[in-house]
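Justification of resources, computational component.

The compute hours requested in this renewal are based largely on the per-chain cost of generating structure records like the one below. Each record pairs the submitted sequence with a full structure-token output. That output is archived, and it is also reused by downstream analysis tasks.
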Amino acid sequence: MSSYSKAAQQWATFARAWYLLDAKMQPPGKIAEMCKLILQGKHKPVYHALSDVGDHAVIINTRHIAFSGNKWKQKVYSSHTGYPGGFTQVTAAELHQKDPTAIVKLAIYGMLPKNLLRRTMMQRLHLFPDDNIPEEMRKNLVELLPQPRKVPRRLDEYTQEEIDAFPRVWIP
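The structure output for this chain reads:
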């Protein structure tokens, strides 16, 4: 019976944790790539493909995601109701205006493995369009994950000293 208690102790050590990821000015694919590892539990030493050892992922600021190039107009999301004439296509801008969390949710859903665990993994995903998180979830957060891309500063965020110290290429 001692092996049973050690197994229980080991599973308690690797219990489900809650991770926070800020999606501000980040591409949805990079967010999904980081988030799928957390939801699957691949960051844990006890990971196994058939076991459900994933953690919770809380993603904030999904309203402020960034696409590169002209993807807001060119990327198309398709769905079908199953009835004749039920095929609909929506651009990324239209979908994002309708639901600010939908693009990130679809990106993560598409990156998870296509098996029976995918729906349970998606239940551990918590998306918020802004940085307002319920207090119950905020208490459970363990770690803030680093953003996959560095967020550029806006021009009004620079001080006058930094602007003056910037090298001039052309002086009129």
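Residues 83 and 168 are 62 Å apart (CA to CA). Helices lie at 2-13, 28-40, 71-74, 92-98, 102-111, 118-123, 135-140, 160-165.
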